Amino acid sequence: MTAVTASPGFTAARTVRLGIRRIGFELRQYFRAGDQVFFTFLFPTVMYLIFATIFTGDVGQGPDSVSMATYYLPGLVAGGIFLSGVQGLSIEIAVEKSDGTLKRLGSTPISPATYFIGKIGEVFVTAILQIALLLTVAVVLYGVQLPADAESWGRFAWVFVLGLLACALLGIALSSVPRSGKTASAVVIPVVLLLQFISGVYIAFTTLPEWLQNVASVFPLKWIAQGMRAAILPESFGAAEPNGSWELGLVAIALALWLVAGVILSRATFRWIRRNG
């Protein structure tokens, strides 16, 4: 049974180099799976099209008011990050355990660190393409005005990177829960959908009961969505948050803690084969 340690003779540089080379392979595998492309890559854009078309009008008052299409955008961006990292990787790795891919890799000199780099690299590339598609649709079809200042895009960047890293590592850890590749979707998707509904992706966060807000605050998606609202919506919208501000410092701390938790959980749970395998 293989723990998450580097293989003998593998230097850190070689591990990273092989991991980067695996990114291309992982991307080819990803885009060959049509169902995965729809439910993780295209799903946020499809949901955005539905919400932005059904719900019209403006939110807010005066010069800081925004269209509903703008208002829903940060939540769907956050949802896309969560789908790519948690749902996409957990199901993908669970299937690879079930079909023997991980067992075959475990018999080669490749280290789990190399495998992780390939998977996380795949998630970053697909998430960047996914968010670019979503933003393009928002601007072209709904006339959404994206932020024009560097500070807002700086916020967008660090929330994106921290959030996606945390979600990817949590996805690796969650892949150990399904007992087979066939049951992976049934185990993972309901959890992901539930968290999206209580974390401010589809429903305004402050309209939820306080106890449900407290539950959502335990998980990273709530903080990713809050950070994306801070990046995309006017500054005045921060007053509508539960504590009356964007609390970006708390967003950074929460995502950093989940990143550390993801490292620990992924290292503790990942095996090339199941313990009962």
Automatic annotation (TrEMBL):
<feature type="domain" description="ABC transmembrane type-2">
    <location>
        <begin position="35"/>
        <end position="276"/>
    </location>
</feature>
<dbReference type="Pfam" id="PF12698">
    <property type="entry name" value="ABC2_membrane_3"/>
</dbReference>
<keyword id="KW-0812">Transmembrane</keyword>
<dbReference type="GO" id="GO:0140359">
    <property type="term" value="F:ABC-type transporter activity"/>
</dbReference>
<dbReference type="InterPro" id="IPR013525">
    <property type="entry name" value="ABC2_TM"/>
</dbReference>
<dbReference type="InterPro" id="IPR051784">
    <property type="entry name" value="Nod_factor_ABC_transporter"/>
</dbReference>
<feature type="transmembrane region" description="Helical">
    <location>
        <begin position="248"/>
        <end position="270"/>
    </location>
</feature>
<feature type="transmembrane region" description="Helical">
    <location>
        <begin position="186"/>
        <end position="205"/>
    </location>
</feature>
<protein>
    <submittedName>
        <fullName>ABC-2 family transporter protein</fullName>
    </submittedName>
</protein>
<feature type="transmembrane region" description="Helical">
    <location>
        <begin position="37"/>
        <end position="57"/>
    </location>
</feature>
<keyword id="KW-0046">Antibiotic resistance</keyword>
<feature type="transmembrane region" description="Helical">
    <location>
        <begin position="156"/>
        <end position="174"/>
    </location>
</feature>
<dbReference type="GO" id="GO:0043190">
    <property type="term" value="C:ATP-binding cassette (ABC) transporter complex"/>
</dbReference>
<keyword id="KW-0472">Membrane</keyword>
<keyword id="KW-1133">Transmembrane helix</keyword>
<feature type="transmembrane region" description="Helical">
    <location>
        <begin position="69"/>
        <end position="95"/>
    </location>
</feature>
<dbReference type="InterPro" id="IPR000412">
    <property type="entry name" value="ABC_2_transport"/>
</dbReference>
<dbReference type="InterPro" id="IPR047817">
    <property type="entry name" value="ABC2_TM_bact-type"/>
</dbReference>
<dbReference type="GO" id="GO:0046677">
    <property type="term" value="P:response to antibiotic"/>
</dbReference>
<feature type="transmembrane region" description="Helical">
    <location>
        <begin position="123"/>
        <end position="144"/>
    </location>
</feature>
